[in-house]
């Protein structure tokens, strides 16, 4: 009989996280107190945008990514919304263009000067007013320039040439790498795959053992990953084959009994998955592959501070409740 080692070779076996020093962090940022399950921050190679708490209307900070240290409490903000800002996303084709959505039922597109925001910015380049209730999610198309998707509490999903009406509120959206498919999760805790050009629903998950909350396309491996909970309220990660009918998952794992929402982040260059829960003090690292067992646990970063929101650049921005990063 030939001997076969059960040892799995991985170049990431000893990966570990290291928090930035105070000099290389953003200190004194008045992060929003909203309880909405969003990231509250967005980063690109030039700037970091952070949703902030303010009295009357909604605003967010735009900070140059290399200008770290303590942030002036009177630092100019982007403050054109009439109600609380719920989400911000940078345009993947323009490092000086950012979109925001708000409880005032609008989506706004902002032009950020090359030198950053030097005075309060109140006039947006474009204001989109197609929703009748607060807008919860926005997402840029990965391959079509200036194409933006929005989802609101009126159960509508809007895009250029597309106007869908869902029977439940969307919790998460994710495009595949070429933008030809859109995966969503909704209040009924199912994963759906849509054709974003026609709005036709192609697949719906039917697993009774998983109630999905967040979904993410794993483009290079042609998989879908969702986080959520089991019928016994254990937090889960689940892998799906989007070419299948989503009747049965490829992989399913219970993690713990915490209540916070798990946010998944995938690095396509290293095939590493990062899982961070809202209110948690830890970040789990996994390595993904196209072969069984598909997911391999690597390491866990632990902190004494609970997380408020995250955004990968890749996964270097971690906002915590002590008003810093």
Automatic annotation (TrEMBL):
Belongs to the WD repeat coronin family. InterPro entries: Coronin, DUF1899, WD40/YVTN_repeat-like_dom_sf, WD40_repeat_CS, WD40_rpt. The lineage of its organism: Eukaryota, Metazoa, Chordata, Craniata, Vertebrata. WD repeats lie at residues 78-112. It comes from the Eukaryota. This is Coronin. Pfam families: DUF1899, WD40. It comes from Acanthochromis polyacanthus. Keywords: Repeat, WD repeat. GO terms for molecular function: actin filament binding. Residues 6-69 form the DUF1899 domain.
């Amino acid at each position: 009989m030939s001997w076969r080692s059960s040892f799995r070779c991985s170049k990431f076996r000893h990966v570990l996280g290291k928090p930035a020093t105070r000099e290389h962090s953003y200190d004194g940022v008045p992060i929003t107190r909203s309880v909405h399950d969003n990231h509250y921050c967005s980063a690109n190679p030039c700037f970091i945008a952070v949703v902030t708490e303010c009295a009357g209307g909604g605003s967010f900070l735009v900070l140059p990514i290399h200008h770290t240290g303590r942030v002036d409490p009177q630092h100019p903000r982007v403050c054109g919304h009439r109600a609380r800002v719920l989400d911000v996303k940078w345009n993947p084709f323009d490092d000086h263009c950012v979109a925001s959505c708000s409880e005032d039922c609008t989506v706004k597109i902002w032009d950020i000067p090359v030198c950053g925001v030097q005075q309060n910015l109140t006039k947006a380049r474009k204001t989109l007013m197609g929703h009748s209730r607060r807008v919860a999610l926005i997402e840029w198309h990965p391959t079509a320039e200036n194409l933006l998707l929005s989802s609101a509490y009126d159960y509508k999903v809007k895009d250029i040439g597309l106007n869908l009406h869902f029977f439940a509120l969307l919790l998460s959206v994710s495009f595949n790498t070429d933008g030809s498919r859109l995966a969503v999760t909704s209040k009924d805790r199912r994963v759906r795959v849509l054709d974003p050009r026609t709005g036709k629903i192609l697949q719906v998950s039917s697993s009774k053992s998983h109630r999905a909350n967040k979904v993410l396309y794993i483009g290079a491996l042609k998989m879908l990953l969702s986080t959520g909970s089991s019928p016994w309220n254990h937090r889960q990660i689940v892998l799906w084959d989007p070419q299948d009918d989503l009747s049965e998952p490829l992989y399913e794992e219970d993690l713990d009994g915490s209540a916070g929402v798990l946010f998944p982040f995938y690095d396509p260059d290293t095939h590493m998955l990062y899982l961070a829960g809202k209110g948690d003090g830890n970040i789990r690292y996994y390595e993904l592959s196209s072969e069984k067992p598909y997911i391999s646990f690597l390491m866990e970063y632990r902190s004494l501070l609970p997380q408020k929101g995250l955004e990968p650049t890749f996964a270097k921005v971690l906002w915590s409740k002590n008003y810093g990063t």
